[in-house]
Amino acid sequence: MRTRPAALALGVLAWALPLRAQQQEAVFVAVDRIAAIVGDTPIPLSRVDEELNLALAEMQRAGRPVPQDSTAIAALRRELLERLIDEELLVQQARRDTTVEVTDQQVQSAAEASLRQTRSQFATEFEFRRQLELAGLGTPDEYRRMLGDQVRRRLLTQTLIQRMTERGDLRPIPPTEDELRAFWETTRRDQPRRPATVSARQIVIRPQPAPEAKAAARARADSVLRELRAGADFASAARRFSDDAGTKADGGDLGWFRRGRMVREFEQVAFMLRPGQVSEVVETPFGYHLIQVERIEPAELKARHILFAPAISDSNRAVARVLADSVATALRAGASYDSLLRRYHDPLEQSLFDAVALTDLSPAQQTALAASTPGEIVGAIELSDGDRIRYAVIRFDDRKPEGEYSFDELRDRIRTELSRDSGVRRYLQELRKRVYIDVRL
Question: Which pTM was predicted?
Answer without folding.
Answer: 0.56
